[in-house]
Amino acid sequence: MSENFFKVIRSGINTTFQDLGRNNLNHIGIPISGVMDKRNYIIANKILNNVPSHPIIEFAYQGPRLVYHGDPLNISVSGDVKFKVFKNKNEIEGKCYETIILKDHDEIDLISTNKSVYGYLAIGADLKIDYQWKSCSINTKANIGSNNGKKLKDNQTIEVLKIKELSRRKLNHINSKIENIRVIKGTNFHYFSKESQSKFFKNEYSVTKLTDRMGMRLEGERLDNIVNNNIKSEGLVKGVIQIPADGNPIIMLADHGTIGGYPKIATVISADFDKLSQLTPGSKIKFKEVNLKDAETIFKLYEMETNNIISKIL
Amino acid sequence: MIKNISNLGDAAVYCDFGDEVNKEINSNVINYFQNLKDCNFEGITNLTPSYNKLIVSFDLSITNFENTKKIIENLEIKKNHSISKKKIQIPVCCEDEYALDLKKLERKLNKSTDEILETFFSKEYFCYMTGFIAGMPFLGDIDKNLHAKRLETPRVKVPKGSIGLTEQFCNIYTFESPGGWNIIGNTPLNVFDSLNQDNPNLINPGDTVSFIQINKEKYKNYNE
Predict the structure, then answer these.
(1) Where are the domains of chain A?
(2) B95, B216 in Cβ contact below 8 A?
(3) Which CATH superfamily is domain B87-221 in?
(4) What is the location of CATH 3.30.1360.40 in chain B?
(5) Is A257 helix (H, G, I), strand (E, B) or coil?
(6) What is the third-level CATH fold of B4-73?
């Protein structure tokens, strides 16, 4: 056991190690995985001057409560997260998007995410965790990745290896509010009646509780398939919106199945993945159509905007 | 060869090899997949072959649809002989607690359980592709009399080891996962091993699979 480590007092809901995920394994059924909200992942690591692929602790709704033992280190929290830091007997209200120094016996309690799903805890140190296919990202369905491919558990430890030099940095940042989700028409768009095609873009859908790292199930007015409720199973990518026979859309997220047999009505553009992932059950979605050229431009702008945000870290 | 190339969203190329499912089209897909894989093009992040489609995903920060499409169109296709050709036996228990949809299937197909199982176990199946979840083999073709559609609403949790049928195909759920296939039984055999990083799949495209029916007692003692 190394001298510096975190002990998990309460693991929280769906708390995992993540990074940018693993590529080139779809053909054997392994999805990319990786962080659900890439922008918040990048920011939290950048505040600590971590490399862009540094492992991070991702949590959903309720995060972990951790006690730290060892030499001082920096952490940062990103997302829309309510949390507290306990130093001796003092309880300090946590602030996202700035460095926090944890000393021996300090505790951090990531209480909840506000009106969003995912939050991030970045650590300014190397962690003793395993890599599988070059990524630490935990896929709990296939038990792949660090921590034996399982969620963090109560009472387990997270061993800290080399600690980075301490720094003080912060960023004034507020998460963007939810807008429309932009999509490109899918390869089976014509499977749906003209009326359903226009309904798809006019109606609101609500995010249901059947939503996790694999996919997001929506509920709304039923869409009529006039060709076939099934297609021959074929590859899927993140953002694909499938319509099964019951007419309710399912959107593929980071741990999605690599193959699926329901018609693809549309695909969410890459620039909107982060905000899509953060939608809580009950949120309303409206789909807006864009073409490929626009989607590419919007993505470039989104990347520039992320770079612009992290350049403002002081 | 590829009949049509289009975009799937803004970060993937959708290569369509046709509508039918047969070994010839499928080996075309696998050949393209192997050749693209061997070239290791920068920016290509995933290749997902299936019965008659190949999806090529790319990193939109590095490349785009037009460039990736050109790579695919200009690819020189060499014959590949490295496709797997093993024969594998899979034990399956079809008693009530494992055969979640067998009763429903009796009605859908208008056949008795005995008829369904006898037909199913009498054939060998070819592995067209693996995926959906890690290591899941897509096998075919099952007898015409057993063709059924997917469940209307997919199950949120299909138990690990379940054997599912839909249309002319059958599969094995290597993990508990959501899924919409008609479940007729369950295997105690581990079909995917994530600790074997070089070759985690028991069944690979090109392999032949036969299913052997076992009773509940044998199932329960299988891993002891």
Answers:
(1) 4-163, 181-310
(2) yes
(3) Cyclophilin-like (2.40.100.10)
(4) 4-73
(5) coil
(6) Gyrase A; domain 2 (3.30.1360)
Whether residue A292 and residue B7 make contact (CB cut-off 8 A), yes or no, is yes
- Which structure tokens are listed for B119? 């037909």
Residue B109 has what pLDDT?
95
Give the pLDDT confidence of A136-163 residue by residue, as tens digits: 999 998 999 999 999 999 999 999 999 9
Asked if B33's CB is within 8 angstroms of A245's CB, the reply is no
CB contact under 8 A, B55 and A234: yes
Question: Sorting pLDDT into bands at 50, 70 and 90, what band is B81?
Answer: low
Q: Which residues on chain A are in Cβ contact (under 8 Å) with B166?
A: 230, 261
User: Model-level pTM?
Assistant: 0.90
- B22 near A CB under 8 A: no
> Strand, coil or helix: what is A56?
strand
Torsion sign across C-alpha atoms A269, A273, A274, A279: positive
> Across chain B, what does the average pLDDT equal?
93
To which CATH superfamily is domain A181-310 assigned? Cyclophilin-like (2.40.100.10)
Is the Cβ pair B53, A234 closer than 8 Å? yes
Residue pair A259/A235 in contact (Cβ under 8 Å)? The answer is yes
